[in-house]
Amino acid sequence: MKFFQKPSPEESAKVPPGQHLAKGFPVLTYGATPQVSIEEWEFRVWGLVKPTVFKWSDFLALPQYEFTADFHCVTHWTKLDVKWTGIKVTDFMSLLEVDPKAAHIMEHCYGGYTTNISIQDFVREENFFAIKLFDEPLPAEHGGPMRLVVPHLYAWKSAKWINGLEFLEQEELGFWEQNGYHRRGEPWEQERYSN
User: Which CATH number fits domain 15-24+39-179: 3.90.420.10, 3.40.1010.20, 3.30.70.120, 3.40.50.11750?
Assistant: First the structure.
Protein backbone atom coordinates (compact mmCIF):
# COMPACT_ATOMS: atom_id res chain seq x y z
CA MET A 1 0.00 0.00 0.00
CA LYS A 2 1.27 3.45 -0.86
CA PHE A 3 1.25 5.84 2.09
CA PHE A 4 1.63 8.95 -0.05
CA GLN A 5 0.13 10.11 -3.33
CA LYS A 6 0.42 13.03 -5.69
CA PRO A 7 -2.29 15.66 -5.27
CA SER A 8 -5.09 15.77 -7.79
CA PRO A 9 -5.34 18.90 -9.96
CA GLU A 10 -8.07 20.22 -7.62
CA GLU A 11 -5.87 19.64 -4.56
CA SER A 12 -2.60 20.89 -6.00
CA ALA A 13 -3.32 24.57 -5.20
CA LYS A 14 -3.37 23.65 -1.48
CA VAL A 15 -0.16 21.61 -1.50
CA PRO A 16 3.18 23.43 -1.18
CA PRO A 17 6.07 22.59 -3.56
CA GLY A 18 7.85 19.32 -2.88
CA GLN A 19 5.00 17.83 -0.84
CA HIS A 20 2.98 14.63 -1.32
CA LEU A 21 -0.39 13.86 0.24
CA ALA A 22 -0.47 11.49 3.19
CA LYS A 23 -3.23 8.89 3.11
CA GLY A 24 -3.27 8.58 6.91
CA PHE A 25 -1.89 10.94 9.52
CA PRO A 26 1.77 9.94 10.03
CA VAL A 27 3.36 10.28 13.47
CA LEU A 28 6.94 11.52 13.60
CA THR A 29 8.55 12.03 17.00
CA TYR A 30 12.08 12.49 18.25
CA GLY A 31 12.38 10.57 21.51
CA ALA A 32 9.76 8.90 23.68
CA THR A 33 6.11 9.96 23.70
CA PRO A 34 5.32 11.75 26.99
CA GLN A 35 2.31 10.45 28.89
CA VAL A 36 0.81 13.36 30.83
CA SER A 37 -2.50 13.20 32.67
CA ILE A 38 -4.84 16.17 32.59
CA GLU A 39 -4.67 16.29 36.41
CA GLU A 40 -0.87 16.72 36.34
CA TRP A 41 -0.74 18.92 33.25
CA GLU A 42 0.28 22.54 33.61
CA PHE A 43 1.36 25.33 31.31
CA ARG A 44 3.85 28.06 32.28
CA VAL A 45 4.72 31.41 30.77
CA TRP A 46 7.90 33.26 31.73
CA GLY A 47 10.58 35.59 30.44
CA LEU A 48 9.34 38.96 29.17
CA VAL A 49 5.83 38.35 30.53
CA LYS A 50 4.21 38.25 33.94
CA PRO A 51 5.09 34.69 35.10
CA THR A 52 1.95 32.59 35.32
CA VAL A 53 1.07 28.89 35.66
CA PHE A 54 -2.14 27.68 34.01
CA LYS A 55 -4.01 24.45 34.74
CA TRP A 56 -6.08 22.40 32.29
CA SER A 57 -9.26 24.01 33.64
CA ASP A 58 -7.92 27.48 32.80
CA PHE A 59 -7.64 26.52 29.13
CA LEU A 60 -11.06 24.84 29.10
CA ALA A 61 -12.58 28.06 30.47
CA LEU A 62 -11.60 29.83 27.24
CA PRO A 63 -13.85 29.64 24.15
CA GLN A 64 -13.34 26.51 22.06
CA TYR A 65 -13.61 26.47 18.29
CA GLU A 66 -13.45 23.94 15.49
CA PHE A 67 -10.62 24.48 13.04
CA THR A 68 -9.98 22.83 9.69
CA ALA A 69 -6.41 23.32 8.58
CA ASP A 70 -3.89 21.76 6.23
CA PHE A 71 -0.84 20.24 7.93
CA HIS A 72 2.55 20.35 6.21
CA CYS A 73 5.47 18.26 7.47
CA VAL A 74 9.02 19.21 6.53
CA THR A 75 9.62 15.56 5.56
CA HIS A 76 7.63 16.17 2.34
CA TRP A 77 4.11 15.13 3.30
CA THR A 78 0.90 17.12 3.68
CA LYS A 79 -2.46 16.17 5.16
CA LEU A 80 -5.30 18.32 3.91
CA ASP A 81 -8.36 19.42 5.89
CA VAL A 82 -7.39 18.17 9.34
CA LYS A 83 -10.25 18.80 11.77
CA TRP A 84 -9.25 20.05 15.23
CA THR A 85 -10.94 21.55 18.26
CA GLY A 86 -9.04 24.03 20.35
CA ILE A 87 -8.42 27.44 21.84
CA LYS A 88 -7.27 30.40 19.76
CA VAL A 89 -3.77 31.67 20.51
CA THR A 90 -5.19 35.19 20.41
CA ASP A 91 -7.69 34.35 23.19
CA PHE A 92 -4.93 32.88 25.35
CA MET A 93 -2.67 35.86 24.74
CA SER A 94 -5.38 38.18 26.07
CA LEU A 95 -4.76 36.62 29.51
CA LEU A 96 -1.05 37.57 29.53
CA GLU A 97 0.83 40.71 30.46
CA VAL A 98 3.60 40.67 27.83
CA ASP A 99 6.50 43.13 27.87
CA PRO A 100 6.45 45.17 24.62
CA LYS A 101 10.14 44.24 24.12
CA ALA A 102 9.19 40.58 23.59
CA ALA A 103 9.69 39.77 19.91
CA HIS A 104 10.30 36.00 20.02
CA ILE A 105 8.99 32.94 21.83
CA MET A 106 10.56 29.62 22.72
CA GLU A 107 7.94 26.87 22.83
CA HIS A 108 8.70 24.33 25.60
CA CYS A 109 7.22 20.84 25.79
CA TYR A 110 6.97 17.81 28.02
CA GLY A 111 9.87 15.58 27.01
CA GLY A 112 12.24 18.53 26.64
CA TYR A 113 11.51 19.52 23.02
CA THR A 114 11.80 23.20 22.10
CA THR A 115 11.11 25.22 18.97
CA ASN A 116 11.33 28.94 18.35
CA ILE A 117 8.77 31.24 16.74
CA SER A 118 8.48 34.98 16.32
CA ILE A 119 5.66 36.81 18.09
CA GLN A 120 4.50 37.90 14.64
CA ASP A 121 4.12 34.29 13.48
CA PHE A 122 2.65 33.15 16.82
CA VAL A 123 -0.09 35.73 17.42
CA ARG A 124 -2.29 35.03 14.40
CA GLU A 125 -6.01 34.41 14.35
CA GLU A 126 -5.66 31.00 12.66
CA ASN A 127 -3.22 29.57 15.26
CA PHE A 128 -4.60 27.50 18.12
CA PHE A 129 -3.92 25.11 20.96
CA ALA A 130 -5.50 21.81 19.90
CA ILE A 131 -7.23 19.56 22.43
CA LYS A 132 -9.22 17.36 20.01
CA LEU A 133 -8.45 15.71 16.67
CA PHE A 134 -11.40 14.65 14.48
CA ASP A 135 -13.76 15.15 17.47
CA GLU A 136 -11.79 12.85 19.79
CA PRO A 137 -9.47 13.88 22.65
CA LEU A 138 -6.05 14.55 21.16
CA PRO A 139 -4.08 11.26 21.40
CA ALA A 140 -0.65 11.29 23.02
CA GLU A 141 1.10 10.30 19.78
CA HIS A 142 -0.29 13.45 18.13
CA GLY A 143 0.73 15.66 21.05
CA GLY A 144 -2.08 15.17 23.57
CA PRO A 145 -3.35 16.31 25.84
CA MET A 146 -2.57 19.59 24.04
CA ARG A 147 -0.40 20.78 21.16
CA LEU A 148 0.08 24.03 19.35
CA VAL A 149 -1.01 24.21 15.68
CA VAL A 150 0.54 26.87 13.44
CA PRO A 151 -0.91 26.03 10.01
CA HIS A 152 1.15 28.51 7.97
CA LEU A 153 4.51 26.99 9.02
CA TYR A 154 5.95 23.47 8.78
CA ALA A 155 4.63 21.18 11.47
CA TRP A 156 7.75 21.09 13.67
CA LYS A 157 6.68 24.60 14.76
CA SER A 158 3.35 23.12 15.94
CA ALA A 159 4.87 21.73 19.11
CA LYS A 160 3.40 18.54 20.53
CA TRP A 161 2.93 18.19 24.32
CA ILE A 162 3.42 21.92 24.72
CA ASN A 163 3.63 23.09 28.31
CA GLY A 164 5.20 26.52 28.25
CA LEU A 165 6.12 29.69 26.43
CA GLU A 166 9.28 31.67 27.14
CA PHE A 167 9.03 35.27 25.90
CA LEU A 168 12.32 36.65 24.57
CA GLU A 169 13.68 39.90 23.19
CA GLN A 170 16.16 38.18 20.85
CA GLU A 171 15.67 35.04 18.78
CA GLU A 172 17.03 31.83 20.26
CA LEU A 173 17.03 28.55 18.33
CA GLY A 174 15.07 25.49 19.39
CA PHE A 175 15.98 21.81 19.01
CA TRP A 176 15.59 21.29 15.25
CA GLU A 177 16.75 24.80 14.45
CA GLN A 178 20.02 24.09 16.28
CA ASN A 179 20.29 20.91 14.21
CA GLY A 180 20.09 22.49 10.76
CA TYR A 181 16.42 23.27 10.22
CA HIS A 182 15.29 26.69 9.07
CA ARG A 183 14.61 29.36 11.71
CA ARG A 184 11.10 30.03 10.37
CA GLY A 185 9.92 27.09 8.22
CA GLU A 186 7.47 28.53 5.68
CA PRO A 187 6.23 25.68 3.42
CA TRP A 188 5.44 27.72 0.30
CA GLU A 189 9.00 29.07 0.34
CA GLN A 190 10.37 25.57 1.11
CA GLU A 191 12.20 26.89 4.18
CA ARG A 192 13.25 23.42 5.27
CA TYR A 193 16.89 23.88 6.22
CA SER A 194 19.13 26.74 7.28
CA ASN A 195 21.39 28.19 4.61
Answer: 3.90.420.10
